[in-house]
Write a structure and sequence with these properties.
Elements lengths: L1 H23 L12 E15 L4 E3 L2 E3 L4 E2 L4 E13 L2 E18 L4 E20 L2 E15 L1 H15 L9 E13 L2 E10 L13 E2 L3 E12 L2
Antiparallel strand pairs: 1-5, 1-12, 2-3, 2-11, 4-6, 5-6, 6-7, 7-8, 8-9, 9-10, 10-12
Length: 229
């Protein structure tokens, strides 16, 4: 279901760009690389799936199979502003409000719980353009504005059951990377990217001291942007 939506978004973006191609042949010739500097808005969807070994350790002891990764994907949304400096080689900083999430299977409850959290993401990407196509990659700094309290409660419930210790809030800052590509035409830009973690998701969750829990998100992002300057 989620991947069907993803393909629908890509199709609509390509439809808009195809219309732009037709319009381009009716206009005077212009640089295919566009303006040297641009500012625009963009929005789209995130599709994420959690990865974790489901192991929590406390002072060398191992607690297994209490929090497991689920194969379910979680759809959420992203939007914000971007700037681009350069033509064939460019730098693209962005400021995005991004909701992300995943699913955790809890064997003790025989239930799959979905969770979301809201970030301010600041990617700074280095890109290379060839004709109307581009590729890009770079780091992403994130700050968590809101964390799913249900997920926090579940993690603490499992940890307290086995370790009997209270939670301590971890840093809300985290880092990841993005790599992907896209198409640019007449002010529109369609991007498809993969985002991987450089720091653990637990940086945004309350985890007790002495506990190791290492979930990471596999996240795909599709956005459609429009140049406003």
């Amino acid at each position: 279901m989620h991947f069907n939506r993803l393909f629908t978004i890509i199709f609509l973006g390509l439809l808009i760009l195809t219309t732009s191609v037709k319009a381009q042949f009716l206009m005077p010739a212009k640089m295919a690389t566009g303006n040297f500097f641009r500012i625009g808005i963009k929005g789209g969807v995130n599709l994420a799936r959690l990865q974790t070994d489901g192991i929590v350790t406390l002072n060398g002891a191992v607690i297994k199979d209490q929090l497991l990764a689920s194969l379910d994907t979680k759809q959420s949304y992203v939007g914000g502003i971007y700037a681009r400096l350069g033509r064939k080689v460019f730098i693209e900083p962005e400021v995005l409000l991004s909701t992300k999430g995943g699913s955790i299977y809890i064997p003790g409850l025989s239930q799959t719980k979905q969770f979301t959290f809201t970030n301010i993401d600041v990617p700074v990407l280095l890109g290379l353009r060839w004709k109307i196509f581009h590729v890009m990659a770079g780091p992403v700094a994130s700050y968590t504005l809101k964390t799913d309290t249900e997920l926090n409660d579940l993690i603490n419930m499992v940890i307290k059951k086995y370790a009997g210790t209270a939670a301590e809030i971890a840093s809300k800052a985290s880092f990841s990377y993005q790599v992907g590509g896209g198409v640019d035409l007449l002010g529109f830009t369609l991007d498809v990217r993969y985002e991987g973690n450089l720091s653990q998701l637990t940086k945004t969750l309350p985890i007790p001291a002495g506990i190791t829990f290492s979930p990471k998100l596999n996240l795909y992002q599709v956005t459609l942007g429009y140049k406003i300057f």
